[in-house]
From TrEMBL:
It comes from Anaeramoeba ignava (Anaerobic marine amoeba). This is Uncharacterized protein. Residues 46-125, 131-141 have a biased composition (Basic and acidic residues). Residues 1-159 are annotated as: Disordered. Residues 142-159 have a biased composition (Basic residues).
Length: 159
């Protein structure tokens, strides 16, 4: 197709105008893209910072919980140790008291046995004394009887 000079210039102008519009459109598109990328980077940066802050707080919280748990465990261990010590002390005291009571009972039993032995001995001595007395009495009575008999015989003989 052949264009005359006039038409050609007109087309060129139209073409140039369209090109300007297209360039403007491209520039706007590029600017929008740059703006969008900038916003995306800012958002990403913000999200990253928030995530880091969240992780930091989480770590801090975990560290605190661990510290509290360790402290609690330590206190529990300390308490258990103290309770065990107190129990051992109490058991030792109870054993000592029991041994003491046992010893006391033993001494009491010994004293009781001693007293019983003494009573038995006293009883035996009393019985022996009584037996001796009875024997002496019998002997005396026998002697008195004999003397009486002898006296009677003597009297009878005399008569």
């Amino acid at each position: 197709m052949l264009f005359d000079k006039k038409q050609k210039n007109g087309l060129t102008k139209i073409k140039k105008k369209e090109t300007e519009k297209e360039k403007e459109k491209k520039r706007k598109k590029k600017k929008d893209k740059i703006e969008k990328d900038k916003k995306t980077r800012q958002r990403s940066k913000k999200e990253k910072e928030e995530k880091e802050e969240k992780d930091k707080n989480k770590d801090k919280k975990e560290k605190k919980e661990k510290k509290d748990k360790d402290k609690k465990d330590k206190e529990t261990d300390k308490k258990e140790k103290k309770d065990k010590k107190d129990k051992d002390k109490k058991d030792k005291k109870d054993k000592k008291d029991k041994d003491k009571d046992k010893e006391k009972d033993k001494d009491k039993e010994k004293d009781k046995d001693k007293e019983t032995d003494k009573k038995d001995k006293d009883k035996k001595e009393k019985k022996e004394k009584k037996d001796k007395k009875d024997k002496n009495k019998d002997k005396k009575e026998k002697k008195d009887k004999k003397d009486k008999k002898d006296k009677k015989e003597k009297k009878d003989k005399k008569d």
